Amino acid sequence: MARNQIMAGEFLHKPIKLTMRGKVVINNGIGDAIPLDKTTVKEYELITEDHRKSAISGVSRGLVGGALLGPVGLLAGLSAKNKTTRVLAIEYVNGKKSLIDIDEKIYSIFIQNMF
Question: Which site among 15, 82, 94, 104 is 20 to 30 Å from 37 CA-CA?
Answer without folding.
Answer: 82
